[in-house]
Write a structure and sequence with these properties.
The chain is built from 6 helices and 7 strands. With 197 residues, it is an alpha/beta fold. A 7-stranded mixed β-sheet has the order 3-2-1-4-5-7-6. A hairpin with a 3-residue loop joins strand 6 and strand 7. Helix 3 packs parallel to helix 4. The longest helix is centred in the middle third of the chain and has 14 residues. The radius of gyration is 15 Å and the shape is globular. The mean pLDDT is 95.
Length: 197
């Protein structure tokens, strides 16, 4: 499915970064190592590299990786692009100063597995920046899964990341303008969590 979505000439979620990410990226240490999970066509990883971070972007789709590579070349930045299934990836321990996960929606068992991996790769004191669709997104027409089991509440995030101190965690309506894939008002759970030392 994702290779088909990303196989078109246009960028399905656009080439500009997620707004919540841009608002929170200043919390990441300058020059820090950042992992972007499920980065698709590379819009968030490439933007972070433009801000001077050392970025690794992981995505399942070979078409997405190819377009992320093209976008990085166009923007003249370097991103370490990894094609992998995050549910089975060998997550390196305490390797990143921050993890960014944006609209990476899984069924609960796989979600908890991936979130455990995110916790593993974060260094003590590292930041998680996360924005995921909330169950009320089903009331909107701006994108996202149609399966409520793939949608995430703030309490789900608290349960998945028990050793994060949440500096911000909320369920909120946002205006999405992310290529043809996300357009209009939507309902998300987003936040910033600090891994306890």
């Amino acid at each position: 499915m994702w290779d088909q979505k990303y196989g078109e000439a246009h960028y399905f979620y656009g080439t500009e970064p997620n707004v919540f990410l841009t608002q929170q990226a200043g919390l990441i240490p300058a020059g820090g190592r950042v992992l972007v999970t499920g980065d698709g066509e590379g819009r968030n990883g490439v933007w972070l590299a433009e801000q001077g971070f050392l970025v690794t972007s992981v995505d399942y789709s070979t078409s997405g990786i190819k377009k992320a590579r093209k976008l990085a070349r166009q923007r003249q930045v370097t991103v370490d692009l990894v094609q992998a299934d995050l549910t089975t990836w060998d997550w390196p321990e305490a390797a990143f100063d921050a993890v960014v996960t944006v609209f990476l929606q899984f069924l609960p068992e796989d979600r908890r597995r991936v979130h455990a991996g995110i916790n593993k790769v974060l260094k003590p004191g590292g930041q998680l920046i996360v924005e995921l669709f909330h169950p009320r997104q089903l009331e909107y027409c701006s994108g996202g899964p149609k399966n409520v089991d793939m949608l995430v509440t703030a309490e789900d995030l608290r349960a998945d990341f028990p050793n994060l101190q949440w500096e911000q965690l909320e369920e909120v309506e946002v205006k999405l303008d992310e290529g043809p894939g996300h357009q209009g008002l939507g309902m998300v759970s987003h936040g910033v969590g600090l891994k306890q030392r």
